[in-house]
Amino acid sequence: MSYSKSPRAKLLLTMLLFVTALGVVLFLQSGDHRPVYAGIFHVYLTLTEDPAQSMMINYQTLTPVNESNVYYDVTSRGGKTEDYAFHATAAPIMIAGLQDERRIHRVRLDNLQPDHVYYFIAGDAVTGFSNEMKFRTIATDSEQIRFVTGGDINIGTLPADLLRHAGEQAPMFAVIGGDFAYANGNLKNVGRWDKWFDNWTQHMVTPDGLMIPIVAAIGNHETNKEQSEDLHVRAPFYMAFFGHQAETIYFSRRIGKDIVMFLLDTGHLIPYEGAQTEWLRQELERYHDVPVKFACYHIPLYPAHRDFMGASSVKGRELWGPLFDQYRLTAAFENHDHVYKRSHLLRNNQIDPEGVLYLGDGCFGVPARTVDDELRWYLARAESTPHFWLVEVGPESIQYKAIDRNGKVFDEVTQARNQGSDS
Ligand SMILES: [Fe+2]
C-alpha cells in the first residue's frame, strides 16, 4: 500500500493533525474534562460546631450505594474494618440532575476525645474502602490555635502550589472565604469541582500526614442565576459539599478556648439585611466575652481592587461594620478582589488603634489583579500577589503571616488581643 504525497494531501493531513491537537488542548483545558474515579474519592473533612469532640468525614462514590460508613479508632488499624473500635454510618445524598449520579457521603463522628489523633477508613462493601487516613481533634482548652485562610482558589498549578505551602504550615483547619472552583453552580462544570478536590486532597495534608478540615463560606462563583428559592438549585455543588455545616448559609464556630468565628454570606444566597444581620447581632452579643472574634466572608467591606463605593461593600460597611465595631471584632478575612491587602485598624470608618483589622483580598489560587498606584486611605499595604494567610493565635497576641506561591512570608503583623466588647 502506498500513500499519496501530493501537496494537497500533505496540507489536508497537516490540517487534520492541527485540528486534532487543538481539540485535545481545548478538552484538557475545559472545566468539563472529567477525571475517572474508581472506588472512594474526594475524601475531605469539614469542621463541625464542636471541633474538639466531633468531625464530619466527607467522600464521594460513583457506585450507586445507599450507605456511608466510617470505621475509626485512636490507634492505626491498617485498614481492616473489623479491627477499628468505632463505626459510624449515614445515608448518602445526590445532586439533582447531575448526570453521573454520584453519591455524596457525609458521616459525622461524635463523642471524640479532644486533642487526639483519629485514624479512619471510609467506604462500603460494594465500592471498597479508602486508605487509612487521620486527623486531630482540637483541644478544648487550647490557647494556641493555628489556621490558614483565603478564598478565590480555582483549579490548576497556582492553587496547587499555594495549597501545598498551606499544608506545610500544619494548620489545624482552613477557612475558605468563597469562590472555590468557579463552577458557577452549573452542573456541567462538575469537572471543575473534581479538579478542585484533586488539588485539595493531594496538598492539604500536614507534614505529619494529618488531614486539614475545611470551614467554608460561600462566594458568588458558587451560585447560578436560576430563579428559585431552593438553595440546592441556586448552589447545587456548594450545598451538597458544604451545606451540612449549618441549617443555613451563615453560621459560627467556637474553636479552642478563646476563639469564635462568624462565617457570613455577602448576599449570594441570603441577603445582608434582615435575618442574617439580626443573627450576627445576636451571635456577637452571645459571644461578647469570647476574647478573639473573627469573621470570614466573600465581598470585602474595604476592597483593595474594586470600587470602595461598590454596592455590596457599602452594604457590608453600613450593616455589619457598626456591629464589628461595637463588639470589637478582632479581624475580618475578606476575599473576592484577587489581590493581597492588609488594612489599618479601622473603627467607625476611620483609622483607630482600637479598630478592626481587615485582611484579604481573596487570592488563594486565582491570578492576582492590580492594586492602585497610591495606597487607599484605609490600607496599610496592598499588592498584586497570590497568597494565603497563616493565623497563629497565642495567649497574649495574634500573628498573621501572608505567604506567597514560593512558601515565603512576605508580610506579617502581630496584634495584641483586645478585651471584650463595648456593649
Ligand atoms: Fe468572587
Structural notes for this entry:
The chain has 423 residues and is of the alpha+beta class. The protein has helices spanning 7-29, 157-168, 190-203, 231-234, 236-242, 275-286, 311-319, 321-326; strands at residues 41-46, 55-61, 68-73, 86-90, 103-109, 117-124, 128-129, 133-136, 145-150, 173-177, 214-217, 251-255, 259-263, 292-296, 331-333, 340-347, 350-351, 356-360, 379-383, 387-393, 397-404, 409-416. The strands form four sheets. Strands 12, 13, 14, 15, 16, 17, 18 and 19 form an eight-stranded mixed beta sheet that branches. The termini are far apart. Helix 2 (157-168) links the parallel strand 9 (145-150) and strand 10 (173-177). It folds into two domains: 41-136, Immunoglobulins (Immunoglobulin-like, Sandwich), CATH 2.60.40; 145-416, Purple Acid Phosphatase, chain A, domain 2. Bound molecules: fe (ii) ion (FE2).
